[in-house]
Each structure stands twice: as structure tokens, then as C-alpha cells.
Amino acid sequence: MSNLAFEAPVRVALKSRVVIQGPSGSGLTWTSLRMAQGMGGTVGVVDTNRGSAALYAEHFDFVHLPMNSGKPELLIEALAVAAEQRIGVLVVDSGTAFWSGRGGLMSQVDHLTLNKYNGNNNKAWIETRGLEQNLFDALLSFPGHLIVTLRTRADYQLQDLGEGRMGVVKYGTKPEQRDNFDADFHFTVTLDMAHAGTVTKSRVLDVPVGAAIEEPGEDLGKLVASRLGDGVEMPDALDIRDQALDPAMTDDDLRELHRLAAKSNLLRAAVLNEHEEVEALGALIVREGEQAKKENRRRTSPAANPGQPAQSAGDAQDSPLMPEYVPDDKAFVAQWAHAIAVIGGEDAEQDLNTVDANLRQEKADGAVSQHDYAHVYRLLEQRRASLGLQYAQSNATASTA
User: Closest by alpha carbon to 355, among 316, 386, 394, 324?
Assistant: First the structure.
């Protein structure tokens, strides 16, 4: 029996993924900073252009990370650090450095070709593809808005000129990056030497492909961010990371968390683990799940899993690492899971009690299935336990509310 199933789509709130491309001198850094300011939040710049973004420090408010290497591993680490610092908009200026710059992917392929594979370029690329994909996954799963600048160069192709003659013809310009770099990005604008922009890719209906923008800036950044951000809020990589590191999580809980991360395309998100080391989110969840199983963690209260019998130690030991939980209403579960995950601080107990009351009211109103209610209520009690708070008296009857 197939586990595949078609479901009604849910529009989720997205963080902007923007490419700004153009020749050197077209205003890539300036335009990216202007658009970043319009998106809102703390702006961070990964600067591979010999610190040139600092020249604009008096015009824009941002934090700065100069980088003199194009090693993809360094950018993955920078993405994890930027996420940890809750940088709202990250500018990578420029993404070309991680392709054709010193230590970039092309440089690594050339090194492997000459020194390991006796000139076999194909084998060198095979070895490097995993790193390339890890870089793209880390970029696209960054929990804030992302702007990547790319330098372009003239593109020439061999063409049949007729009458048996072949010739090299200029086909405009192309970015110095892998082909279709922006395939999974939401918006691409190409600049000319007058700093004017032309939209060459858009998932924002208000700004279609071909639109000419005299000086792309704050207004465009704000528009792109607001349109893409219109939807159901979903947990980001840090929300899921924090849940995974909760010592109250069982191996069952971590399997469910792994499924959530997979559905959100966050398994390869770069995060800092409990040792402040860069680790892929999926690997962190699996590692924590294995540890939870090794420690034979169990829920501290049978009521923490309403509607289901308490799990025995033997069952816990023999259970798979990650259970197959499939929500009836993905949007409902995601919203409540996110709301519960971010609760903390002085008002945590009051906030948890409020969520408790609202959740039980949703159940009483018939707005949620017993299946989803039991799962979300268990997340609520896990969060309560992780904060060292007493279980509410209503828990014992929660499953029949």
C-alpha cells in the first residue's frame, strides 16, 4: 500500500529568496542593502568583496562579516551563525565567490581533477556535488530573508552562420554561478550600468517578469517580503532545533519532529548544535533520537499523551526511532506547534495555560480531530515539562474535553 497521498495545498508564509545580478559596477552591493532595509529586521552582510560593504556603513544599519575565501563550508557556517544571531535579512555579497573565487567550488573541482583523478573532471565533480547541494540547502533553509548578489559576464556561444560557416556569437550576459542558480529562488532582478533593474524571475504577482525598475530599493524589498510572507506561519529551523534539544523529548517525539522538518524542507538546514558546532538539522534530530532511545526516555505523565495508553519501558526500547505521525490538518498542527515552541520567559506558565484553554475550546467546537488534538496537547505538556512547570489540573480530563 502506497504512503503517498494528495492533499489540499496550504499557502505558508515564506521568507524572501532574492538574486540581484549584474556586471561589476552596476550597484550590486548598494541595491542589495537598500532592498534588505525594506524587508525589515537586522541586516547582516557576508562580504567577499574585500570588505567593500563597509564603505556604505554611514548610509545603512547592518552587521558585517568580511570573508576572504570562497569555501562553501565557510558560507554554510556563516548561515548557521547568522541564524543563531537572529539576523532577519542576510546579504551574501557575492555568491559568485563561492563558485569561481578562491576556494570556491570550481577551484575545488580543479584541485581534485589535477591531484586526485589524473585529469578526470567528471569524477572530481561527482565528489564535489554533495558539498554543492549542502550549500544550496543551507541557503534556501535560512530562517530569515536572503539576498544573494551575482556578478555577470558576457556569454558567447558557437552558432551556425549559414553556408557551412560557424561562428562565436555574443548571447548577452550570464551570472558567474552554476546554471539555473536561481531556480528555487523567488525573485531575480538584473541590473545594468545605470543601476536600473529588470525583473527576470518573479513569484510575486505584483512585479511580473519583464518589469523595469528605475532604482530597485527599499520599496521593492518591502513589497517582495510582504507578498511572500502572506500565509500560515510555520516553524523554522531554529524552532525545530530547540525542540530537538529539549531533554524531555522521547524518541517518538523526535521521529515526529523529523517528519515535520522533512515536510518543511529543513533537514539540511545549517544550525549550531548544543556544542556551538555547525550541524545539519536532520542529523541533529536523528542523533538526539538515538540518545533518547539509549536513555529510554519516557513521558513523565500518562496524561501527556491524551487518548493513548502510557508507553511501557519495553515498548519504548523496541519502538522505531521516529513514529509515523500524519496530521489530519497540517496547517492547524504547524500553527499550534510553533506557538507552543516559542513560549518561555516570565509569562510562560500563563501563556501555556492560555494555549491549554484555547486548544480545549477548539476541540469542544469540533474544529480539530481527536488525532491532531492529542498530538498538539502532548507537545504542550512536553513544553510545560521542559520549562519545569507543574502539569495543569485539567490535564487528566483533557482527552475528553
Answer: 394
Q: What is the DSSP string of 347-365?
A: THHHHHHHHHHHHHHHHHT
Write down the pLDDT at residue 194. 93
- Provide the mean pLDDT of the chain: 85
500500500: which residue's cell? 1
Claim to verify: residue 223 and residue 255 sit in the same structural domain:
no
Question: Rounded to an integer, what distance in angstroms lies between the CA atom of residue 401 and that of residue 388?
Answer: 25
Q: What is the pLDDT of residue 356?
A: 85
Q: What is the pLDDT of residue 283?
A: 94
- Using alpha carbons, list the distances in angstroms from residue 153 to 50, 96, 150, 156: 20, 11, 10, 10
CA-based nearest residue to 112, from 99, 100, 128, 96: 128
| Separation between Cα atoms, residue 134 and residue 132, nearest integer Å | 5
Task: Indicate if 136 and 31 belong to the same structural domain.
Answer: yes
Q: Which residue has the cell 506547534?
A: 337
- Domain edge (last residue) among 180, 196, 228: 228
Listed in sequence order, the residues at least 6 apart from 11 whose beta carbon sits closer than 8 Å to its beta carbon are: 230, 231, 232
Beta strand 187-191 with 17-22 is parallel
Question: CB–CB of 334/232 below 8 Å?
Answer: yes
Residue 214 lies in a domain: yes
- What is the number of other CB atoms lying within 10 angstroms of the CB of residue 333? 22
pLDDT in tens, 82-140: 999 999 999 999 999 999 999 999 999 999 999 999 999 999 999 999 999 999 999 99
Domain boundary among 171, 196, 228: 228
Is residue 12 one of the residues assigned to a domain?
no
- What's the rounded Cα separation, in Å, for the pair 400 and 40? 44
By residue range, what is the domain housing residue 192?
17-228
Is 115 part of a structural domain of the chain?
yes
Q: Which residues contact 349 (CB under 8 A, 6 or more apart)?
A: 387, 389
| Residues 46 and 160 both lie in one domain | yes
